[in-house]
């Protein structure tokens, strides 16, 4: 047969599943199926052979050959002509039927070569003159049970016609039509609907129960056959008819009852074969089309058989539209592939096929010989054509069942069926049957062996950590214990400093067994403080000094520590030791002495985890548990004195406990991570090489980046590293495969698992080297217990889970926590006595599901609740929901964790919004004020209502399947580089449907994620991509342009690209010539004419809110505010929030302000044409203040608002009637002092100083305004300098660059040496002056609103010192390092990025020439508006505001 591409066909989904199964063992005959038809009459063998050959020739699927190529498996159609028809006379045998059975058994054991065929065999046996047996065998890839029946009917039809001499008609349908339908289904919408149906129904992945322990599928099966008494079938049929059911409904329900009786399972999942042919081309085509679907059957002992059968019927009705979705695919969807994981337990196969065949009038009896592979147990029911009743076959895997066990099960099942049929309305729990034989005792032993894992005893007795560290200090006092940057502590010094702090704590009255809060950044002081607290007899409570203040306050309120250790304000190096200050927690009650406890029972530390009540829970770990963990983990990790361990985790993560105490107890060196190490993976590994790090302990999320970089060659593992420990969330199989390929087995990689409640780590799995034989590569184990730890898997009934099935993971051993601080009810629920084990030992209920695979390792299988882990954080969605519901715009909220197809983990918030509905960005800001960044969802989905289960609860399984709507058109239109950027964003953010114009930071991007983006882009492009580039180009389009052409591509003389200069040309259809060049300007309203209505943009910003306030004060006009919002109510709410936040009156908003939703970047400002022209007719003046102000973003990301928005406002000003446009600009458009000695009150030409995107966009906008002025439109331009805080309220703008420098530098004890002078103008002065100028000079040209002397930054920084902050002035590079090491917050990273973007200069260019402001002074003369000078007193009022708002801590000494 010719093998050509033209004749190749795809496999159907059903064929593909069989083909994949055969590939696991090409020699196995497991997929052979056979039927035998007993013919009662004298058969003509030659006619019969002719009939069979013709039927075979018509059945296309029987002739396919299967090949595997680059496109995957395909089938080659053709005709198998050389196959043998076996004819045999066994009539002389002692038992002809036995002889036939022996031959068929041998034939079924033959291997079928799918590459060559044939896929079938036929034989005719003569057992006597009036008795023949016809046997047909076929591989399941070619025929299913219904296919066999089609073949049998066609052969009977052909034989009958040939025997009568009649012409043969009819035939089978087209197999190609079946394949076409299959392709159409898989690519059509119904497949997606079916997938959603099944994944939702089985989202909880119920563990199927069975009657035996799981085992691999065997190539043979064992069978027991019975014929059900006719009276039994009559009773079942009568009962079902009366109840409006079918007898198969009752049979399925009875099967579930039988399984329940032997296993106590509250729910049974049966496998239900379905022929999948009604309404399809396959109804007339012998082929493989059947499917097996999982049928969930709840079993309640109080329910009757009829009640249960009604439930079965209802479930089948719900399933019926979705039966085509392949169970092999569903197993992949539910991650149930590999090992002994199954979708269902026993299969119940009710054969409806009509085998009452006649061959030329001769009657027949059908004998099923083999229905194909059996994983566990298959119950087959066949209506016999000889009138002898219903035949029941129990086919079983011989690795699971012996013949006598199978016979006993079948007999007991028939007895139960008899009892249930006799009283179908009786509760199934009361059915009178002989005692059911439970699972054999050896099965219980097997269950215990596989469901309980024991790490064995501790290798050495557990010793207190303080005793071990003290011993190391005495053994090697001069050895370095801790190192941070250039600073070190020897073991002697560490112990001495800790003892001194302990004495101070005792002097302050610290009580044993109580928590002391340690709120210190990573550093030597944090280690000293933790040990000092332990030496005092108290336990340490680590808090994040950079965390949200509200969360810190909640923890302090809950734990009530009497004492708090925190960093003193000091100008010393933040890495150095000695910056600890001890303060008393005034809110804590006086602590009474705790009851005397044994040393080991005393509190060692408390770490808070996310809580289901919306409040975090404090986990209390005693000294015994810590010592127990250190003994077991030190042995498993092999930590020795020669090791150098990188301390990576924050102190408030329990991974820090592992890093700190395993290292110090072994006498090794602890190297504290610096913020500089986090700038990229390569920098981290370079630092590891520099410090000789041997043990690297990383959160799995960060290790994913490291594995990717190492595997692609973008970074190299230092030769010093011998061990890498990961944990915190599930490791991605793809990353593990990359690591194995790149690192091999030379570096030991341990995947760890353990909740805080079990002291850091309970189990470990070795991931380095090749995977375990037979284990699927996509399955990453969490391993086996540490020494001294036991694990148990418990099913829903509180019993040990059956072997190979999932159960809830319980942890036992000496490492368990004391319990939760002040949570007695939660302690009772989570720390329990485990009755399933001898002695009822104390255990911790993890809430995690797991199973034990064949190699004895645990595999994580999800959660029994809604907790989710992301970036090492244990997140209870309820805590996030509680914060969301505190927002006025949220009526209902549900947060779920989602794992996307690529493995990215994210949180998705589903919101039912009130009116006005909040924007996603607004909700992000609200959450960030209360929660750590990792707990803020990256995706928000708004809906009218949340889905509910039948019990009224929020259906979280349904929500996990909901994805935010995608915009595939936007991605399709992107360039190659834009698609690369968007692909990386999707991986990092866990979002889809983004466009090239989206802003990374507005989508929720955070500082750590910028590192991930830069790292992955660098790997993809084979060159370094600086993190600063990601900051500078936040849109995908701009970043792609910079990556493809370079950051300065296209820049011409004057600092502007050709595209920017094109943007600076004002189209005449926007502002036509209102006068001929050189003629007088068109008349404008007289300054004395009061405004009736004025339009204002940017009213929700810092300056804009004050402008609105002044418009309401200085005029009687109605103010129309264009606001980015969903509707008018939301727009007004945004205005109200802005005014309130800046301490401005909202009394006149409702009466005089109209809030209009708009988008300045869109044509017509995003308004309808009618609304646009209505505003053009009604407004007397326009004040355009809106702008995106950013010191790090490039022009392309600012162009929409700053340039296109200005153009559309000019269009509005010129439409209907000419109206004055008052444009708010910036002195940043002016040339610097080295280019021009002064800044005139006039338009300036392009110049080389226009270097950043903000400067460029504002200059282009000014150029548009200038052209409008030349065409006769009355315009004014107001250039602002450094807009400082309000004189009246002292409120400042923390987003202003100078305030960013102050807020980042003061906590670090350092400010940069910047000899720069600027004009500072208070915001309330700016607003009042600008409104006054617009009233007295409607078309007045350019005004520099800077009528005061400049302020020198060194002088400002001196005033900061005078306020009491001990700040040191240092060179810019040193200051940058100090800030990075001291904070590492996202805000600080953005500030530092401003300076990184000006690499090559020692400092950014701030200086301007003399600012001319004569026109401003002249226009304001005679008014009471004057600009106050910024001085020491004013700055101190600003600092008072920052302290009051929590932006800064109060200085140690005040003025």
Automatic annotation (TrEMBL):
InterPro entries tied to this protein: AA_adenyl_dom, ACP-like_sf, AMP-bd_C, AMP-bd_C_sf, AMP-dep_synth/lig_dom, CAT-like_dom_sf, Condensation_dom, FAR_NAD-bd
Record Gene3D superfamilies: 3.30.300.30, 3.40.50.980, ACP-like, Chloramphenicol acetyltransferase-like domain, Luciferase, Domain 3, NAD(P)-binding Rossmann-like Domain, Nonribosomal peptide synthetase, condensation domain
Transcription regulation found in the keyword field: no
CDD domains per record: A_NRPS, SDR_e1
All copies of domain Carrier, residue ranges: 972-1047
One MF annotation (Gene Ontology) recorded for this entry: ligase activity
SUPFAM superfamilies: Acetyl-CoA synthetase-like, ACP-like, CoA-dependent acyltransferases, NAD(P)-binding Rossmann-fold domains
Keywords for the protein's UniProt record, in alphabetical order: Ligase, Phosphopantetheine, Phosphoprotein
Pfam families: AMP-binding, AMP-binding_C, Condensation, NAD_binding_4, PP-binding
Name listed for the protein in its UniProt record: Nonribosomal peptide synthetase MxcG
Species of the source: Stigmatella erecta
């Amino acid at each position: 047969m010719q093998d050509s591409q033209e004749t190749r066909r795809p496999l159907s989904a059903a064929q593909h599943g069989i083909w994949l199964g055969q590939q696991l063992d090409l020699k196995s005959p497991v997929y052979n199926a056979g039927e035998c038809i007993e013919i009662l009459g004298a058969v003509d063998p030659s006619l019969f052979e002719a009939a069979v050959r013709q039927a075979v020739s018509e059945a296309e699927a029987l002739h396919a050959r299967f090949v595997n190529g680059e496109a995957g498996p395909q089938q080659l159609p053709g005709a198998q002509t050389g196959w043998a028809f076996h004819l045999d006379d066994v009539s002389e045998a002692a038992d002809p039927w036995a002889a036939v059975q022996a031959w068929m058994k041998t034939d079924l054991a033959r291997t079928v070569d799918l590459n060559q065929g044939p896929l079938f065999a036929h034989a005719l046996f003569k057992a006597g003159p009036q008795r023949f047996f016809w046997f047909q065998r076929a591989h399941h890839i070619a025929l299913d049970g219904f296919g066999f029946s089609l073949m049998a009917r066609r052969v009977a039809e052909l034989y009958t016609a040939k025997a009568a001499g009649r012409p043969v008609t009819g035939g089978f349908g087209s197999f190609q039509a079946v394949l076409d339908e299959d392709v159409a289904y898989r690519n059509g919408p119904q497949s997606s609907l079916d997938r959603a149906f099944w994944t939702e129904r089985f989202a909880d992945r119920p563990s199927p129960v069975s009657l035996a322990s799981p085992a691999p599928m065997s190539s043979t099966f064992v069978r027991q056959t019975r014929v059900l008494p006719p009276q039994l079938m009559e009773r079942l049929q009568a009962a079902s008819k009366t109840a409006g059911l079918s007898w198969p409904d009752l049979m399925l329900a009875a099967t579930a009852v039988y399984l329940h009786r032997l296993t106590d399972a509250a729910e049974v999942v049966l496998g239900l074969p379905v022929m999948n042919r009604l309404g399809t081309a396959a109804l007339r085509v012998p082929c493989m089309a059947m499917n097996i679907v999982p049928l969930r059957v709840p079993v309640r002992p109080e329910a009757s058989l009829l009640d249960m059968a009604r439930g079965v019927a209802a479930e089948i009705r719900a399933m019926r539209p979705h039966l085509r979705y392949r169970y092999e695919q569903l197993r992949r969807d539910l991650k149930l592939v590999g090992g002994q994981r199954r979708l269902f337990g026993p299969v119940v196969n009710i054969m409806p096929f009509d085998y009452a065949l006649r061959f030329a009038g001769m009657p027949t009896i059908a004998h099923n010989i083999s229905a194909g592979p059996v994983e566990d147990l298959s119950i087959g029911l066949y209506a016999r054509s000889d009138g002898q009743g219903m035949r029941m076959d129990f086919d079983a895997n011989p690795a699971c069942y012996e013949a006598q066990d199978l016979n006993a099960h079948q007999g007991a099942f028939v007895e139960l069926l008899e009892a249930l049929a006799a009283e179908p309305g009786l509760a199934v729990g009361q059915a009178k049957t002989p005692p059911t034989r439970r699972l054999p005792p050896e099965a219980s032993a097997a269950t215990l062996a596989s469901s309980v894992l024991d790490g064995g005893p501790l290798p050495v007795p557990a010793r207190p950590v303080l005793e071990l560290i003290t011993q190391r200090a005495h053994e090697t006092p001069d050895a370095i214990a801790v190192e941070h940057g250039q600073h070190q502590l020897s073991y002697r010094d560490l112990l001495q400093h800790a003892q001194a702090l302990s004495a101070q704590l005792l002097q302050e009255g610290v009580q044993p067994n109580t928590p002391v809060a340690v709120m210190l950044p990573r550093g030597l002081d944090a280690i000293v403080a933790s040990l000092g607290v332990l030496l005092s007899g108290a336990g340490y409570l680590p808090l994040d000094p950079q965390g949200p203040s509200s969360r810190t306050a909640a923890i302090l309120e809950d734990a009530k520590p009497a004492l708090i250790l925190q960093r003193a304000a000091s100008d010393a190096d933040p890495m150095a030791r000695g910056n600890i200050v001890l303060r008393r927690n005034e809110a804590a009650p006086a602590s009474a002495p705790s009851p005397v406890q044994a040393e080991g029972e005393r509190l060692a530390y408390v770490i808070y985890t996310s809580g289901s009540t919306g409040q975090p829970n404090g986990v209390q770990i005693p000294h015994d548990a810590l010592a127990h963990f250190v003994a077991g983990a030190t042995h498993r990790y092999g930590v020795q004195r020669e090791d150098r361990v990188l301390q990576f985790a924050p102190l408030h993560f329990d991974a820090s406990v592992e890093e700190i105490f395993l290292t110090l107890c072994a006498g090794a060196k602890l190297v504290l991570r610096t913020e500089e190490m986090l700038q990229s993976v390569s920098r981290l590994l370079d630092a590891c090489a520099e410090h000789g790090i041997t043990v690297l302990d990383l959160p799995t999320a960060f290790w994913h980046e490291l594995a990717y970089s190492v595997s692609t060659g973008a970074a190299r593992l230092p030769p010093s590293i011998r061990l890498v420990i990961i944990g915190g969330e599930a490791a991605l199989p793809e990353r593990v495969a990359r690591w194995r390929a790149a690192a091999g087995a030379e570096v030991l990689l341990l995947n760890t698992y353990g909740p805080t409640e079990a002291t850091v780590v309970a189990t470990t799995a070795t991931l380095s080297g090749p995977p375990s034989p037979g284990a699927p590569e996509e399955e990453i184990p969490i391993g086996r217990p540490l020494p001294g730890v036991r694990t148990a898997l418990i099913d829903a009934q509180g019993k040990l889970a059956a072997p190979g099935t999932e159960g809830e993971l319980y942890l036992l051993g000496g490492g368990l926590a004391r319990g939760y601080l002040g949570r007695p009810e939660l302690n009772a629920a989570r720390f329990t006595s485990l009755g399933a084990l001898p002695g009822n030992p104390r255990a911790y209920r993890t809430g995690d599901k797991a199973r034990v695979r064949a190699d004895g390792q645990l595999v994580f299988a999800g959660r029994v609740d809604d907790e989710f882990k992301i970036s090492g954080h244990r997140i209870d969605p309820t805590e996030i929901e509680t914060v969301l519901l505190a927002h006025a715009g949220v009526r209902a909220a549900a947060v779920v964790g989602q794992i996307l197809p690529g493995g990215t983990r994210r949180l998705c918030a589903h919101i039912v919004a009130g009116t006005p509905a909040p924007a996603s960005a607004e909700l992000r800001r609200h959450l960030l004020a209360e929660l750590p960044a990792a707990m803020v969802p990256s995706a928000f989905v708004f809906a009218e209502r949340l889905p509910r289960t039948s019990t009224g609860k929020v259906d979280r399984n349904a929500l996990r399947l909901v994805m935010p709507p995608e915009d595939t058109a936007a991605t399709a239109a992107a360039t190659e580089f834009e698609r690369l950027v968007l692909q990386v964003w999707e991986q990092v953010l866990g979002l889809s449907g983004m466009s090239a114009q989206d802003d990374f930071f507005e989508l929720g991007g955070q500082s750590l994620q910028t590192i991930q983006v830069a790292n992955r882009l660098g790997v993809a492009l084979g060159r370094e991509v600086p993190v600063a580039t990601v900051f500078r180009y936040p849109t995908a389009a701009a970043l792609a342009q910079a990556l493809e052409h370079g950051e300065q591509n296209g820049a011409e003389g004057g600092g502007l690209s050709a595209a920017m200069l094109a943007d600076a040309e004002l189209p005449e259809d926007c502002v036509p010539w209102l006068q001929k060049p050189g003629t007088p300007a068109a008349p404008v309203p007289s300054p004395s004419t009061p405004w009736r209505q004025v339009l204002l943009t940017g009213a929700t910003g810092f300056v804009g809110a004050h402008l609105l306030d002044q418009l309401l004060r200085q005029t009687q006009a109605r103010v129309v505010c264009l606001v980015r919002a969903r509707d008018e109510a939301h727009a007004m709410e945004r205005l109200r929030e802005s005014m309130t936040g800046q301490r401005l009156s909202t009394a006149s908003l409702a009466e005089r302000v109209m809030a209009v939703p708009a988008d300045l970047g869109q044509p017509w400002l995003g308004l309808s044409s009618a609304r646009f022209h209505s505003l053009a007719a009604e407004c007397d003046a326009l004040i355009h203040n809106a702008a995106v102000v950013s010191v790090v973003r490039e022009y392309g990301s600012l162009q929409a608002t700053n340039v296109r928005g200005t153009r559309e406002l000019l269009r509005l000003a010129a439409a209907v009637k000419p109206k004055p446009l008052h444009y708010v600009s910036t002195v940043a458009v002016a040339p610097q002092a080295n280019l021009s000695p002064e800044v005139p009150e006039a338009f300036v030409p392009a110049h080389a100083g226009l270097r950043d995107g903000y400067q460029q966009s504002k200059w282009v906008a000014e150029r548009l305004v200038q052209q409008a002025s030349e065409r006769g439109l009355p315009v004014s331009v107001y250039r602002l300098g450094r807009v400082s805080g309000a004189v009246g309220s002292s409120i400042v703008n923390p987003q202003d660059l100078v305030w960013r420098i102050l807020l980042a530098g003061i906590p670090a004890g350092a400010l940069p040496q910047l000899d720069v002078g600027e004009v500072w103008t208070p915001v309330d002065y700016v607003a009042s002056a600008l409104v006054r100028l617009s009233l007295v000079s409607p078309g007045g040209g350019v005004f520099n609103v800077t009528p005061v002397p400049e302020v020198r930054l060194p002088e400002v920084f001196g005033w900061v010192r005078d306020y009491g902050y001990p700040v040191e002035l240092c060179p810019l590079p040193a200051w940058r390092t100090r800030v990075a090491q001291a904070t590492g917050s996202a805000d600080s990273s953005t500030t530092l990025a401003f300076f990184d973007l000006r690499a090559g200069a020692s400092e950014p260019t701030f200086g301007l020439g003399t600012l001319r402001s004569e026109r401003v002074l002249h226009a304001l003369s005679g008014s009471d508006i004057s600009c106050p000078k910024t001085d020491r007193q004013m700055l101190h009022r600003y600092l008072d505001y920052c302290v009051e708002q929590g932006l800064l801590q109060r200085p140690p000494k005040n003025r």
